[in-house]
Amino acid sequence: MPGKIVLAAVVLSLFAAPVLAGPMREATEICSDPMTSEPRKNEILPARGWETAPIDEAGGLTDLAMALIIGFTNGMPDLAERFAAAPRLAANFATLAEKGEVRLWQKDGALLAVSIAKTPEGREHLGCYLAMPPDDETLDLMREYGGIEELPELELLARRFDETAFRTTPDATFAMVSSWTRQTSDPARTPLTDGYRLERVEQP
């Protein structure tokens, strides 16, 4: 009888449903995949259950901007001033989305903006910008990519990961920077406290 119980447990484990990734890990996987272009990423997202999000500048886009604003305001020393700049970043996201230069996606409370642009030298610049409610996956990813950095002066937990330049095709080399953050502000400045940002730039 014990042997049959063990065999049954093994069989059940083989057919058990796989643990599904949440929006943070899924966005990280899709955005950081070096073998897919921006158009291909925007094909993969709906296939994975992401839906088109509305251009809601005063709502979702302000939350997205607030979650990521610290990374966009490195030259501003005053923390209150940096958070106050979030509506301007939200307006920029909205303008680019209206022009079709940014596509907005949503899933399970997460909001993701995917952009494609050109550098002044005419090179490809891909950007992924995600914000979502707090989730253990965010901290897990920080640990996987080097550990959680505590930045109380910025009301932030963070991890930045710089990829070395790599070649995805015979004629294209890219450099990529990823960062994961969690705002620790009390009270929370936005319900979307967890952020992910990726910048991928084609190199000469």
Summarize the structure.
By secondary structure, this protein is α+β, with helices and mostly antiparallel strands. It has seven helices and nine strands, in the order H-H-H-E-H-H-H-E-E-E-H-E-E-E-E-E. The protein has one domain.
Your description of this structure?
Helices cover 37% and strands 30% of the residues. The protein has 204 residues and is of the alpha+beta class. The chain has one domain (20-203). A hairpin with a 4-residue loop joins strand 5 and strand 6. Helix 4 crosses helix 6. The longest helix is centred in the first third of the chain and has 14 residues, at 2-15.
Structural features:
disordered N terminus; single chain; 37% helix; 204 residues; nine-stranded antiparallel beta sheet; alpha+beta; 7 helices
Question: Which spans have pLDDT < 50 for at least 5 consecutive residues?
Answer: 1-19
- The structural class is alpha+beta
Secondary-structure element pattern, one letter each: HHHEHHHEEEHEEEEE
Mean pLDDT: 87
* Helicity, as a percent range: 25-40%
Strand content: 25-35%
Oligomeric description of these chains: single chain
Shape from CA axes?
A: globular
* Overall tally of domains: 1
DSSP strand count: 9
Report the radius of gyration as a whole number of Å. Answer: 19 Å
Give the distance, in angstroms, between the N- and C-terminal Cα atoms. 67 Å
Separate helix tally: 7
SSE arrangement:
Elements: H1 2-15, H2 23-32, H3 38-47, E1 51-52, H4 60-72, H5 79-84, H6 86-98, E2 102-107, E3 110-118, E4 124-132, H7 136-144, E5 149-151, E6 156-162, E7 166-169, E8 172-183, E9 194-203
